[in-house]
């Protein structure tokens, strides 16, 4: 389906916001945006970035207004898209998309993005999450399943990670992983991620930001609700007032 669990969404926004304060983010490459969740959530905190979407299912472009969310939308298969045509730098986000391809295919996509970007953020269902095609879209079927160890094995340059367990089940959840092959940035990326994790852990309301776990963020009112909860924490850097 074109939307997914809210677990990890606030963490991704907080991490990107912190990283942008240290190294202005020039672009965001959103692979498999679906309804444009990460474009909707990251644009407010990265207003100067160029947003690029790579979406395999053309009907989503019109249905969810992706051309109004992203500066460029490429209707293409992420597995064969030539990322060398995109600028260097910035952040790539692969939110709940890698399970829709084989692990070998996913590895090639992530390696290509690591070559272009300063940071790659992965959000991956951990455990067995079977899913078939959705509303006529065959690309919504799940092809691969991951455990935390699988992610570390398949995708190199892992800088930091966390898994949000579901219903106290340690074998199922949403894993968020940040990767970078830029040695000079790995420490700052790790710090941004760990600071954001600590903030979410200390403020449990940030886990879902006042929304149900499975929320269709194509509704602007729900995005506004998300930021009502998150905004007081966006400038809560160490040594600075919120």
Explain this structure.
This protein has helices at 9-22, 37-42, 59-63, 66-69, 103-116, 148-154, 186-202, 220-234, and strands spanning 27-31, 50-55, 72-75, 91-95, 119-126, 158-166, 169-179. Helix 1 (9-22) crosses helix 7 (186-202) and helix 1 packs across helix 8 (220-234). The chain has a seven-stranded mixed β-sheet with strand order 3-2-1-4-5-7-6, sandwiched between helices. The chain has one domain: Rossmann fold. Helix 2 links the parallel strand 1 (27-31) and strand 2 (50-55). By secondary structure, the protein is of the alpha/beta class. It has eight helices and seven strands; from the N terminus they run H-E-H-E-H-H-E-E-H-E-H-E-E-H-H. It starts with 8 loop residues before the first helix and ends in an 8-residue tail after the last helix.
